[in-house]
Design a protein that fits this description.
The chain has about 350 residues and is α/β, with parallel strands linked by helices. The chain is built from nine helices and 15 strands. The strands form two sheets. A nine-stranded mixed beta sheet has the order 14-13-12-11-7-10-9-8-15. Strands 3-2-1-4-5-6 form a six-stranded parallel beta sheet, with helices on both faces. Bound molecules: nicotinamide-adenine-dinucleotide (NAD).
Length: about 350
């Protein structure tokens, strides 16, 4: 370990935690010093590959260690608030997996603790580090398609509930596909289009799997305070065909991108003008590795991270408005807007 290497810990080693562990182990600027996981098999499986790393059960024992400067929180959604607040109060820099938390109130609680701390805090909205999504943002900002007018963001994918952890199938514990994937879509729409969402009309429910107490389907109409309108449609299907991406329409053309989900789906980025799609070449990368590098940059340079706690909170404000609109059947105007 060199003096410059930051000591990092990963909390939660389910589906995504081990990918963060690998990213840390491969980064010369950091050192994996601890992991926390309540499940013995998962903990042991990761620990076997990293004998110098402390493998602990209780994440609070990780936070008590002086050699841990930063943590990556990969816990179930219902534990995000408690772990984030504990980590910040222990003086650790934090990269928390999306979504920031499961309600506006919980996100505000985290944001308040972060505001009064000296730590770097970022939310793992990985879409910012997908090369295709980032390039689409650049094209929109460059003005190539003129002034953006509207966007259609869609994500259709297999639900496969048998492969998911139980908490993800229970909205009371932070489950449901709106929190899981809808937050990715809200994040990229907010990032790409700028401005704030001022009103929402939505459907959100579980028509595909009515036996599961969490949403599998949502469609929302979002009205931005900069005049742009967007739709978000996502479905976790029993059987169907994958689609994952967005279409943007401006005063001078279109941009569309498609990402792969699993091994399926069309992939690419295109600008549409004069009745032709021009493919835009984009180099591949590892989004989690780039996200981690950006986190280290922000810690080392004391700069604002690419995805702030306020952005994470804003994503959940829109998500909550979608849920409220679906429950009430009415348009929801976000407080203080419109
Ligand atoms: N950025 C992405 O593309 C992406 C992809 C998948 C998941 N995620 C996010 O990552 C997070 C974790 O999701 P997941 O799919 O890995 O969930 P998961 O349920 O597979 O993993 C969570 C792990 O935390 C462990 N755990 C529970 N309580 C604990 C505690 N008190 N202390 C230590 N460990 C504990 C569980 O045993 C489990 O192994 C979520 O926020 C999810 O939205 C992000």
């Amino acid at each position: 370990m060199t003096n410059q290497q930051l000591g990092i810990a990963v909390l939660g080693l389910g589906r995504v935690g081990p990918a963060h562990v690998r990213v840390i182990a491969e980064n010369p600027r950091a050192r994996l010093v601890a992991i926390a996981e309540v499940d013995e098999t998962k903990r042991g499986g990761v620990a076997a590959n990293y004998p110098d790393c402390a493998a602990l059960v209780d994440y609070r024992d990780v936070l008590a260690r002086a050699d841990v400067q930063a943590v990556i929180i990969c816990l179930p959604h219902w534990l995000h608030t408690r772990a984030a607040v504990d980590a910040v109060q222990a003086g650790k820099h934090v990269l928390i997996e999306k979504p920031l938390a499961t309600s506006v109130e919980e996100c505000e609680q985290i944001a308040e603790v972060v505001r009064t701390s000296n730590v770097t805090f970022t939310v793992g909205h990985t879409q910012h580090f997908y090369p295709i999504v980032a390039k689409a943002k650049q094209i929109l900002d460059d003005g190539r398609i003129g002034r953006p007018i509207m966007a259609i963001d869609s994500w259709y994918k297999p639900y496969e509930p048998e492969k998911r952890p139980a908490w993800m199938l229970d909205r009371k514990r932070g489950g449901g596909m709106l929190l899981m994937d809808g937050t990715h879509m809200i994040d990229r729409l907010l990032w790409h289009l700028g401005g704030r969402v001022e009103a929402v009309k939505a459907m959100n429910g579980n028509p595909v799997y009515p036996e599961i107490p969490a949403d599998d389907t949502a469609m929302a109409f979002l009205q931005f305070d900069n005049g742009i309108v967007a739709t978000l449609s996502r479905i976790a299907y029993r059987t169907g065909i994958t689609q994952y991406g967005a279409d943007y329409f401006g005063t001078n053309g279109q941009v569309k991108y498609r990402l792969p989900y699993g091994q399926h789906g069309e992939v690419g980025l295109w600008v549409g003008q004069n009745e032709l799609w021009e493919p835009i070449a984009v180099a591949a990368n590892n989004p989690l590795a780039d996200q981690f590098d950006a986190f280290l940059d922000a810690i080392e340079q004391g700069t604002k991270p690419a995805v702030s706690v306020e952005h994470g909170l804003e994503v959940i404000r829109v998500m909550a408005a979608i849920e409220r609109s679906a429950e009430t059947g009415r348009e929801i105007v976000l407080a203080g807007r419109a």
